[in-house]
C-alpha cells in the first residue's frame, strides 16, 4: 500500500468517530500457519479423516464446494467441516486485529476466531450472523469502542449455513439479494469511510457477486467515494499475477486498490503503528483460554417483568412465568437463563434498572394495557401507574443504545399492538396484542413460543408460529388472531392465520 493510502487508513482508525470496516476473507485462517490454499487445506483435512474416497469426484477444489447425490452424504460432510472449524487455533494475527480500532468487521468465513480474540482481551463486540433461512440484522449503531462482527456466511455451529455446497450458496444468495434484508447492516456499509480487505483469493467466482452486493448497498448514497484497500493474497509467488485480468476486473468494477504484500507482515506493521499512535484498545483482564472457546454459547437471557396493581383484574403472572421457565429443557440450561426471581410488582422506575442489571436478549412484559396506548405499572402504594407510549419509546431507545443485545420484546398486555409496532423500530422484534387477551391464551402462546425459541434463539418468527400452533392445539382458534408480530416497523404475516 502506498504511503498516502496507508496514512489515510491510519487517520480513519485514529478518528474516534471514524467508520473503517475490516472485511475478512476465508483464506485468513491460514495466515499464521501455512501457505496452503484454503480449499486445499479443507481437502487435506477431509483426507486425513479418511474421507478421501468420499470426496473423490465430489469436491470442486477450484471453488471449494461439495456435491453429493443424497442429503445424508451432505450432512455427514458438513458435520465434518463443522469439526474442522471447531479445532481452529486462535493465532496472534487475530489477537492483533482485535486491538485495532475498526468500527465493524465483516467476515466471509463461518469461524468465530475474531470473536474469541475479542473475548480473550475482554473487549466488547456485537456478534451477528447469517442463520439458515434469515439474516440477523445487526445493531443500528456501532463504533470502534464496541464494533459489530458480522459473519455474513453464517457460523459453523449451524451446518445449514456452511457455504460448502451449491444449494447452501444459492440459498444464501437468494436471501441476501432481497431488498428487505439487512436494513441496519446496509446502513453501516453506506456510512463507512474506508474498507480494508484481507484474506481473499480473488479467483473465486462467487466473490464477484459478494463484492457486487457490497457495492450495490452504497448505490444512491450521498457519502463521498471511499477508500477500498485490498492486501493481496500473501501466497502469490509471482507478483506479476496482480495484473491478471481478474484483478483488473475488481479494480475497474469495485475500485479496489490492490497491494501485493504479505498479509501477516502488513498486520504486524499496522498493529505497531497503531500502538505508536496510542489508538490500540487496551488489554483488560485476560480471559482464560478455557472460557474463550465458549463464545457462541453465552447465555441467552429472558427477563420477565409483570404488574397487577389493586383495583384491576388480578393477572396470574406466575402462570405465565412458569410457562416460560418450565418449557426450558435441562439440556438447554447452559445456553438460556430465565431470570429468577421475576418481578411481579414492576414499577416504571424498575424497567430501566432491571434491564441495565440483567441485559436480557428478550424482555417479557405482562401487565394491563389501557386506553391511549398506555401500560399499567404498579405504583408505589399498590395503585396503578400509567406509562405513555412516547415515554416507553424513549426508555427503550436509551436501553437499546446501551444494550444492543436486546432483540425482542413481548407485550403480554391488552391492546398493545401500537407498542409493538413503534418499539420494533428500536428493537428488531416485538410481539403485541391487538385486542383484550385471555390469560389462558397467553399461557399456551408462551409455552409454544419459548419451546421453539430454546431450539433456535434467532428465529423469532418461527417461534411466533409455534406459539400460535400451541393455541390452536388447545382449541383457542379465534385467539390466534390476537398476537401480532412486528419486525422493524412492519407486521409479519404468518401461515397460521385463519383465512378471511
Count of structural domains? 2
Number of helices: 18
Shape: globular
Structural class: alpha/beta
- The percentage helix is 25-40%
* Straight-line distance between termini: 62 Å
Largest sheet: 8 strands, mixed
Low-confidence stretches: none
Characterization of the model:
Helix content is 38%, strand content 16%. The protein has 500 residues and is of the alpha/beta class. It folds into 2 domains: 3-292, no CATH class; 300-491, Rossmann fold (3-Layer(aba) Sandwich). The strands form 4 sheets. It has an 8-stranded mixed beta sheet, sandwiched between helices. Strands 12-11-13-17-18-19-20 form a 7-stranded mixed beta sheet, with helices on both faces. It has a 3-stranded antiparallel beta sheet with strand order 14-15-16. Strand 11 (300-306), helix 13 and strand 12 form a beta-alpha-beta unit. Helix 13 (317-326) runs parallel beside helix 17 (439-453) and helix 17 (439-453) crosses helix 18 (460-473). The longest helix has 16 residues, at 71-86.
Features:
500 residues; alpha/beta; 8-stranded mixed β-sheet; 18 helices
Fold blueprint:
Layout: H1 3-14, E1 20-24, H2 38-48, H3 52-55, E2 59-60, E3 65-66, H4 71-86, H5 92-97, E4 104-107, H6 113-120, E5 126-131, E6 134-135, E7 148-151, H7 166-176, H8 183-191, E8 194-198, H9 205-217, E9 227-231, H10 245-254, E10 257-259, H11 263-277, H12 289-292, E11 300-306, H13 317-326, E12 336-338, H14 348-358, E13 362-366, E14 368-370, E15 374-378, E16 384-387, H15 389-402, E17 408-412, H16 417-423, E18 429-433, H17 439-453, H18 460-473, E19 483-487, E20 490-491
Parallel strand pairs: 1-4, 1-8, 4-7, 5-7, 8-9, 9-10, 11-12, 11-13, 13-17, 17-18
Antiparallel strand pairs: 2-3, 5-6, 14-15, 15-16, 18-19, 19-20
Amino acid at each position: 500500500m502506498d504511503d498516502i493510502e496507508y496514512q489515510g487508513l491510519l487517520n480513519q482508525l485514529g478518528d474516534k468517530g471514524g467508520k473503517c470496516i475490516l472485511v475478512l476473507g476465508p483464506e485468513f485462517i491460514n495466515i499464521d500457519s501455512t501457505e496452503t490454499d484454503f480449499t486445499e487445506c479443507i481437502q487435506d483435512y477431509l483426507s486425513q479423516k479418511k474421507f478421501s474416497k468420499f470426496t473423490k469426484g465430489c469436491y470442486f477444489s477450484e471453488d471449494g464446494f461439495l456435491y453429493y447425490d443424497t442429503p445424508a452424504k451432505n450432512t455427514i460432510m458438513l458435520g465434518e467441516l463443522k469439526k474442522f472449524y471447531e479445532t481452529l487455533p486462535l493465532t496472534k494475527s487475530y489477537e492483533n486485529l482485535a486491538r485495532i480500532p475498526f468500527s465493524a468487521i465483516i467476515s466471509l468465513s463461518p469461524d468465530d476466531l475474531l470473536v474469541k480474540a475479542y473475548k480473550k482481551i475482554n473487549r466488547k463486540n456485537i456478534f451477528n450472523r447469517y442463520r439458515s433461512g434469515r439474516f440477523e440484522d445487526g445493531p443500528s449503531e456501532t463504533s470502534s469502542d464496541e464494533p459489530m462482527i458480522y459473519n455474513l456466511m453464517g457460523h459453523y455451529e449451524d451446518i445449514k449455513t456452511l457455504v460448502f455446497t451449491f444449494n447452501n450458496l444459492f440459498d444464501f444468495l437468494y436471501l441476501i439479494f432481497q431488498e428487505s434484508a439487512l436494513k441496519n447492516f446496509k446502513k453501516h456499509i453506506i456510512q463507512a469511510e474506508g474498507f480494508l480487505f484481507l484474506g481473499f483469493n480473488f479467483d473465486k467466482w462467487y466473490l464477484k457477486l459478494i463484492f457486487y452486493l457490497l457495492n450495490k448497498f452504497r448505490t444512491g448514497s450521498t457519502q463521498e467515494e471511499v477508500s477500498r484497500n485490498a492486501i493481496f493474497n500473501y501466497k502469490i509467488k509471482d507478483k506479476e499475477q496482480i495484473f491478471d485480468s481478474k484483478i483488473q476486473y475488481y479494480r475497474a468494477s469495485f475500485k479496489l486498490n490492490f497491494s501485493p504484500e504479505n498479509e501477516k507482515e502488513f498486520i504486524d506493521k499496522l498493529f505497531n503503528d497503531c500502538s505508536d499512535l496510542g489508538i490500540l484498545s487496551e488489554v483488560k483482564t485476560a480471559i482464560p483460554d478455557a472460557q474463550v472457546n465458549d463464545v457462541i454459547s453465552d447465555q441467552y437471557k429472558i427477563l420477565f417483568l409483570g404488574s397487577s396493581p389493586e383495583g384491576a383484574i388480578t393477572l396470574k403472572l406466575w402462570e405465565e412465568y412458569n410457562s416460560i421457565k418450565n418449557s426450558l429443557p435441562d439440556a438447554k440450561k447452559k445456553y438460556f437463563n430465565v431470570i429468577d426471581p421475576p418481578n411481579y410488582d414492576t414499577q416504571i422506575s424498575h424497567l430501566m434498572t432491571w434491564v441495565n442489571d440483567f441485559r436480557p436478549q428478550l424482555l417479557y412484559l405482562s401487565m394491563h394495557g389501557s386506553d391511549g396506548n398506555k401500560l399499567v405499572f404498579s405504583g408505589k402504594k399498590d395503585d396503578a401507574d400509567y406509562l405513555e407510549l412516547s415515554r416507553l419509546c424513549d426508555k427503550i431507545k436509551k436501553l437499546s443504545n446501551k444494550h444492543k443485545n436486546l432483540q425482542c420484546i413481548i407485550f403480554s398486555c391488552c391492546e398493545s399492538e401500537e407498542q409493538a409496532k413503534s418499539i420494533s423500530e428500536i428493537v428488531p422484534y416485538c410481539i403485541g396484542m391487538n385486542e383484550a387477551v385471555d390469560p389462558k391464551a397467553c399461557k399456551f402462546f408462551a409455552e409454544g413460543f419459548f419451546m421453539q425459541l430454546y431450539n433456535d434463539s434467532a428465529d423469532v418468527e418461527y417461534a411466533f408460529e409455534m406459539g400460535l400452533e400451541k393455541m390452536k392445539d388447545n382449541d383457542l382458534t379465534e385467539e390466534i388472531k390476537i398476537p401480532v408480530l412486528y419486525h422493524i416497523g412492519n407486521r409479519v404475516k404468518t401461515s397460521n392465520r385463519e383465512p378471511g
